[in-house]
Structures are given as structure tokens and as C-alpha cells.
Amino acid sequence: MPLLYYWRGDVYRADLDAGVGFHLNQATPRLHAIDVGDSLWAFTRRADGAYVLVAELVVHARTLNPDGFHYGRYRLWGHLARSRYFAADAQADITPLIRGLSVSSRGGVLGRAFQGAAAVRSLTLADHAVLARYAAALPTEPRARLLPEEQLEAALVEEGTAAFERILLETPAGVGEARRGQLRGFAQRRDRHLVLALRELYRGRCQVCAWDPPTGYGVELCEAHHLRWLSRGGADAATNLVLLCPNHHRAVHRCDAPFDWADRAFVFGERREPLVVDEHLLDAS
Ligand SMILES: [Zn+2]
Ligand SMILES: [Zn+2]
Predict the structure, then answer these.
(1) CB-based contacts of 148: which residues, under 8 Å, 6+ apart?
(2) What is the C-alpha to C-alpha distance for residues 238 and 183, in angstroms, rounded to an integer?
(3) What is the pTM of this model?
(4) Is pLDDT at 204 greater than 70 in this prediction?
(5) Is the pLDDT at 2 greater than 90, yes or no?
(6) Where do the structural domains in the chain lie, given as residue ranges?
(7) Angle between helix 177-189 and 9-18 (nearest 10)
(8) Ligand 1 centroid from CA 138, angstroms
(9) Residue range 3-135, CATH number
């Protein structure tokens, strides 16, 4: 079942500025009424008061967040290649389009009908077709793109702030100044001890497959991975880090594999890979 989500204007603008992820967190279980492969459509209210369509996330996974997670227990992950953010500026007001859908939004200010838990609404397939037709010609939002997160993590841990800065510079779109400042702060405070402590705790093994390079090869090859990605607001803290072999690390990033806190597993479509070596407190809230 497709969904419609009302993204509060101020929150949308702050999220875009901070660097969007192709995912959405909410406190309402209705978020998980959507099926994998279905679309979540998001609209918002522009600063000039016009309502505009800003995203279609084609869902590739539904996961749970840790208890007490600030943005809610339920999370959807959009398929990276199939999801799209639409440019908000050039659109005409879509109030008639939204009022024409089966979701009840009659009368009053449109946004008020979508407050609180009502921000997430179920759509019919006919509604979905209407939105898909409208969206077909919309230009995409150039700022909505992911940072090269593996490179960022490597620079953070293995290289200097110069390498980190270069990556930020080479990625001009999608990261606002406030977020850049925060990321730079991480780079300057980066704490190699976190990685060294993780390697010591797990004796260099991958937490997913237990591959053990120190025993096999006499070298440390496993890498620290931020469960909640840095570019998505994650902290550079032990509670947000796991130790992964290079293969698992690459797979997690290339597939944008969600981490499901319900069973502490990475989700690769139908395949789930739990942490088999799991000895430290994780808390990505
Ligand atoms: Zn592994
Ligand atoms: Zn990583």
C-alpha cells in the first residue's frame, strides 16, 4: 500500500540542508503499512506557502530503530536508484492535487489535516497513479545526494583532516554549511582510540562474519563502520561503531544496507546478516 507523508516545511528545509538520506523515521506504526517496492510520496509547504511534492521513496526495507530513538521507532529505507527528490522551487501549488486524493483533507489549511500521526496516510493505487503522473516531468533536487560515506569514514580514521576536507569539497551538493561544520568538527576531534579499542575488544574480527585477519595474516584489516552514518547525523562514538571486514563494509555501503535494531542485523533485501560477535553497547539515538 503506497503512503503519503507530509514533511513539515521547516523540517524539510533543515533536513535538505543537513544532507538528506533516502530514508524516513516516524513514531507511527502506520509507516510500516507500506510494502517493499511501494512508494512513499512526500509533500511539503514551501516558505511562500505553496504545497509541493518533494520526494518519492521506493521502499526497499522496513526496520526498527533502537528504543527511545529521537525520530521514532519505525524507519523506511528508499531504494537509492529508484527513489527521487524533486526540486521544490519550480512547482506550482499542488493543493488541488492533494485534495483530489482519497485521503481526507477537506477544508481549512491543508497542512493541518496532516499533523502529528496524521502526517503519514495510506494511499490507493489510483492515488499513487495520480502522483506518479504528476511527478513524471518534475526535475530532481540536485542537493539530495549521498556523501561517499566509506571515503569519509576512511579519511576520518586513517588520514588527516585535509583528506576529509577534500571529500567535503568534492561533494558540493547536498551538505549545508551547518552540517559541514559539524563534520569538520568530527574530523578535528577524531579519535583513533575508538577504532583501536574496537579492534582490541574484538581481537580484530569482523562482527558479522568473525573473519579474523590478525590470526590468519598477522595484520589488522577490519574497519570501523558508523551504524548511523556520519553524513546522516550519526555520532563518532563507540556506541555508533561496529567493526567490519572490508568486504562487509563495502557491501553495507554499496547496498545502503539498513541496520535493523530489532535483531541487530544488516538487511540486504531478503538476506539478513546479524552481528555474530556483539559485545559492546550500541545506541545510535
Ligand atoms: Zn565480515
Ligand atoms: Zn562504514
Answers:
(1) 167, 171
(2) 17
(3) 0.77
(4) yes
(5) yes
(6) 3-135, 149-274
(7) 40
(8) 41
(9) 3.10.590.10
